[in-house]
Design goal:
The chain is built from 22 helices and 12 strands. By secondary structure, it is α/β, with parallel strands linked by helices. The protein folds into 2 domains: 313 residues, ABC transporter transmembrane region fold (Up-down Bundle), CATH 1.20.1560; 214 residues, P-loop containing nucleotide triphosphate hydrolases (Rossmann fold, 3-Layer(aba) Sandwich). A 6-stranded mixed sheet has the order 6-7-8-3-9-10. α6 runs antiparallel to α11 and α19 crosses α20. The radius of gyration is 36 Å and the shape is elongated. The C terminus is likely disordered. The protein binds adenosine-5'-triphosphate. Adenosine-5'-triphosphate (ATP) binds next to α12.
Length: 617
């Protein structure tokens, strides 16, 4: 109930429409309920007394009541539609805005497909429930109360029939709702599963085709689809029981009233018109009970959706700007002070342990390490995508938690491992970096990230439509566009998380050469290829969440076993791109070159690779 009230609180400006809708249904029902009384009078007074004037007058009153009931009914429909669709729109917007405030840790709590379902299907379920249930929700109780009052007013003795029938009916209905309620929860979860499968398949449809997994996916779908059909059948088998219960009660009540009413007419205690009017109320009261039971079933179904939406809205945001936050990052210096980090408080292992690092403003730092060694985790702490579990990360001499989040993230640009472009043109995507960038600035960023190499080949150039998620460009082109976008932010720190992995080695080197000209910007490069980082001022080797070694290319080649193994594996065996790396890097690298030669002569295991468990192997 608390969650229901919470959802209703999102009506906002549509509250007025909802109230108007309720009032109009009350008025509509009241007009409708007066008609049987007028009818009873026509029969008992007008027809019995052959009073044509009276019949005509009552007829006009009946027509007015019917007309007013129709008009209020129509007006209600307009207000109710505005209120329910308005509420739906506001709920979607509230969820969407809330998700914008989520930290990466918050996002880890939800599947992307689940968030999509919660913003679409779940809102639609609530919207449909309210749309279909709004009128009966108000009309049912109103008609029930007025019906009872007028039935007692017409004939209190006959109305006693209700006193017997109504409780039997109410108890039966309560039992059905109690049984069906939890089943609706299960049904909603099954719908969710089906949505998840469909969404995942559609998102990854290219991979499904590439791996010829169509049959497997169809089987998956068939399984959840049949599960949904079975759950629906099970749920509705109980839900439809309300109809026999209601109709049995209705006909029992009608039969009893006809029987007792007939006896009373024969005994002269009741008029024919009174009985006709009374029977109308019987039908209206029983109809209102049908309405109320249906509304209960509808609302029970939407409770699961309400709960899921509240989960999104009430997810506590664990990252926020502090009060009196610093608005300016003075420079691009970075320091990790005894940093440990866990993705979840209850996780057994730390993703980073006791990391101490000092990076001077304007310097270039390479980060190497095996899969899962913590490279991405480390750099994500700099723009405060996650908060440290222990220790502190300092940027520009201040703890990142002291900055305004937007100011910090404007100063620290990160090109994520999973590059994402958005629907729209190249220009629109680039302007994410700087919404006010002039044409020349956009083109300069394109030159630095070597987007210029393919930009002219795109139809329309900078105004080429990239399609959803950048499907119209290659992986390497996408990476270069993401780099250009980050450069446009003119950050003080720029982080490349393996962001040139799909770029050929010559272009990679050319991009690095361009970046090396950016003065005053701290550059952090996570890479798999030694060639991508060997010109860095310092290289950090990570192993299993710990800093294994820090030094220049030359120092590490001389002293660090893991670095030697990676280097050897890439120059001798596995990585065919290595010769290109060294050719290009020799042209603009300084101190590393002599060491390169020295070490490439040393005997290191060919094809050595690097993994999380054992470092180099
Ligand atoms: N969102 C997450 N939730 C929980 N654990 C995570 C999450 N992201 C990463 N991890 C775990 O943290 C550890 C470090 O991961 P991280 O992505 O930092 O490694 P990495 O060195 O960047 O690997 P790669 O080279 O494959 O990108 C891994 O064990 C990984 O499984």
């Amino acid at each position: 109930m608390h969650e229901f009230r919470r959802i209703v609180s999102y009506l906002g400006p549509y509250r007025r429409d909802a109230i108007m809708g309720i009032l109009l249904v009350v008025v509509e029902s009241a007009f409708e309920m007066v008609i049987p009384i007028l009818m009873a009078d026509i029969i008992d007074v007008g027809v019995a007394g052959r009073d044509l004037d009276f019949i005509f007058r009552q007829g006009v009153y009946m027509a007015i009541c019917a007309l007013l009931s129709l008009i209020t009914g129509l007006a209600y429909a307009r207000f109710a539609a505005r209120a329910t669709y308005g509420l739906g729109a506001r709920l979607r917007a509230a969820e969407y805005e809330r998700v914008q405030d989520y930290s990466f840790a918050n996002l880890d709590h939800f599947e992307t497909s689940s968030l999509v379902t919660r913003m679409t299907t779940d809102v639609t379920v609530i919207q449909n429930a309210l749309n279909a249930g709004f009128r009966p929700m108000v009309r049912g109780p109103v008609m029930l109360i007025i019906g009872f009052i007028l039935a007692f007013y017409l004939n209190a003795e006959l109305a006693l029939v209700f006193v017997v029938v109504a409780p039997v009916m109410a108890i039966s209905m309560a039992l059905i709702v109690r049984r069906v309620g939890p089943l609706y929860g299960v049904l909603q979860a099954t719908v969710d599963k089906l949505n998840d499968v469909v969404q995942e398949m559609l998102t990854a449809v290219r991979a499904v085709k590439a791996y010829v997994r169509g049959d497997y996916e169809c089987e998956q779908f068939r399984r959840v689809n049949q599960g949904l059909a079975a759950t629906s059948e099970h749920t509705f088998r109980f839900a439809v029981l309300n109809m026999p219960v209601l109709y049995t009660s209705m006909y029992t009540a009608t039969t009893l009233i006809m029987w007792f009413g007939g006896q009373m007419i024969l005994g002269g205690a009741l008029e024919v018109g009174e009985l006709t009017g009374f029977l109308s109320y019987v039908l209206q009261i029983l109809n209102s009970l049908i309405m109320i039971s249906n509304v209960f079933l509808l609302l029970t179904r939407s409770l699961a959706s309400i709960h899921r939406i509240c989960e999104v809205l009430d997810e506590p945001i664990d990252l926020a700007s502090p009060e009196h936050a610093l608005e300016e990052v003075p420079d691009g210096s970075i320091e990790f002070r005894d940093v440990s980090f866990k993705y979840r408080a209850d996780a057994r292992e730390c993703a980073l342990e006791h990391v101490n690092l000092s990076i001077a403003a304007g310097s270039t730092v390479g980060i190497l390490g095996g899969t899962g060694s913590g490279k991405t985790t480390l750099v994500q702490l700099i723009p405060r995508l996650y908060d440290v579990t222990e220790g502190a990360v300092l940027v520009g001499g201040h703890d990142v938690r002291a900055y305004d989040l937007a100011a910090l993230r404007d100063a620290v640009a990160i090109v994520l491992q999973k590059n994402v472009l958005f629907s729209g043109t190249v220009r629109e995507n680039l302007m994410w970096g700087d919404g006010k960038a002039a044409e020349e600035e956009l083109l300069e960023a394109c030159r630095q990230a070597r987007v210029d190499e393919f930009l002219d080949r795109l139809p329309g150039g900078i105004d080429y439509d990239l399609g959803q998620g950048g499907v119209n460009v290659s992986g390497g082109q996408k990476q270069r566009l993401c780099i250009a976008r980050a450069l446009l932010k003119r950050p003080k720190v720029i982080i490349f998380d393996d962001s040139t992995s799909a770029v050929d080695t010559a272009t990679d080197a050319s991009i690095r050469q361009n970046l090396s000209r950016l003065t005053g910007v701290t550059k952090i490069i996570i890479a798999q290829r030694v060639g991508s980082v060997q010109d860095a001022d310092q290289i950090v080797v990570l192993d299993d969440g710990r800093v294994h070694a820090v030094g220049t290319h030359g120092e590490l080649l001389a002293t660090d076993s893991i670095y030697q193994e990676i280097y050897a594996s890439q120059t001798r065996g596995g990585d065919t791109s290595a010769p290109g790396d060294y050719l290009v890097s020799d042209t603009f690298l300084s101190s590393a070159a002599p060491d390169d030669k020295k070490v490439s002569d040393t005997k290191l295991s060919p094809g050595a690779s690097f993994d999380r468990e054992g470092g180099a192997r």
